[in-house]
Amino acid sequence: MTASLTTTGHPLSFTQQFLRLFDQGDGQGPFSARYNIVVGWRVRGRLDVETLHQAISEVAAKHDSLNAVITRGDGVAHQSIQPPSPARLLVVDLPKASPEYRGRKAEELLTEIESGSYSLQELPHLRAVLGRFDDEDAVLALIVHHTAGDGWSMQLLIRDIVTCYARRRGHDVPEQPAPRPYHEYAAWQQENAESRSAVAARAYWREKLRGARMLSVTTDHARSAGLAKVCPVHRFTLTQELSAEALAFAKRTRSSPFMVLLAAYNVLLNRLTGATDLVIPAITSGRSQPQFQETVGPFFNFLPLRTDLTGCRTFRQVVDKTRSTCVEAYAREIPFLQIAAESPELMADAALDDKALCALQVWQFATVMEGERFGDLEVEEVRGRLFSQPNGTDIPDGALLTFDIDPSGEIYGNFAYNSNLFTESSIMSMVAEFSGILRYGVAAPDSPME
């Protein structure tokens, strides 16, 4: 591997700038060693560990976001791209287990990894753990700090790693396209900030969010109580029947699954808070530019989706209003920092002592690996995790409800939360009520909601 000279002075993307707002310099928040994304894959086939390590290091060297150090000083932050160095690969032997129990052991491994801390000072911001059941069955977990990647990035990385591995093993596998550097995306964002479309989008958000405040939920514990923070994850699964009905209803109403799930979430938050003017923080992929589809980096964006439920008596009416909100917002998506600048009071309630945001995110990747072969390996993502955990990767504040739509059509849920703000019983209660709202809504969309 040939090391290049260090390059400095690249601007931060708006996502990275936004994450810096949560950094208190106390070892917590987005720049802590616990703000990571972890994804795992079952790998079947006789695996050459040294070749795998070489493939991971080669792929890490291709992506500048994985080799970037964010420097803060003189009130201005920038990225410095460092020469590539070998990625870290930890190999562990997993407990003996019969094939039908190995899925559970794979999930336990990912849970253990997610509870760990990983130094931001060590580059690259990609590391891996290989857990081996035997010589031909293993779990490969990738760990990336959230300031260097996102969920989409993880799919790109595993695809590139197994492709590189196969090519190194002599298989005739097509090479993946060369990615555009992430720092070029950050520069493009800065240049595009004053374009005609960006100016028009800011005008839209200025009017759309006039007088708005991001909806915050009353917490179980006050921030001022100073309780210790960890980030548990409550996992649940919508039944196969409910998942199928929700996806079918989305299709019938010309909505995306996200829109239907957001509509049910809107109803839930309306019941919890009594508010009808709802501004929900939703996380999007932020990948609107085709030239950066192959780029690894933190592209995710926050969109404040404002929906007025006044006059809505049925679930179908809520879905219709939610869909209109989403279509308008998607067509005018710009970085959240730019949106917030047009609505100075938007985040005011999120800073209250007994309030916190509960964001929503839906994952539905078209590139998910489901038993695909690369050379002499078969790779399948570890999906449908069923077991809650007492401590996961960090989330900056409040709670984050994530739905993962499996290619099979099943919908899995993860509700991560700050333990110093919410109790497990409150989170479980919200999940139970959400499921009831969705079940009744898709079964009887034109009946009055209770």
Automatic annotation (TrEMBL):
Protein name, entry field: Condensation domain-containing protein
Residue ranges constituting the Condensation domain according to the UniProt record: 11-448
Coiled-coil ranges (or none): none
Gene3D superfamilies: Chloramphenicol acetyltransferase-like domain (3.30.559.10), Nonribosomal peptide synthetase, condensation domain (3.30.559.30)
Top-level taxon: Bacteria
Database matches in SUPFAM superfamilies: CoA-dependent acyltransferases
Pfam families: Condensation
Source organism of the structure: Nonomuraea monospora
Stored InterPro entries: CAT-like_dom_sf, Condensation_dom
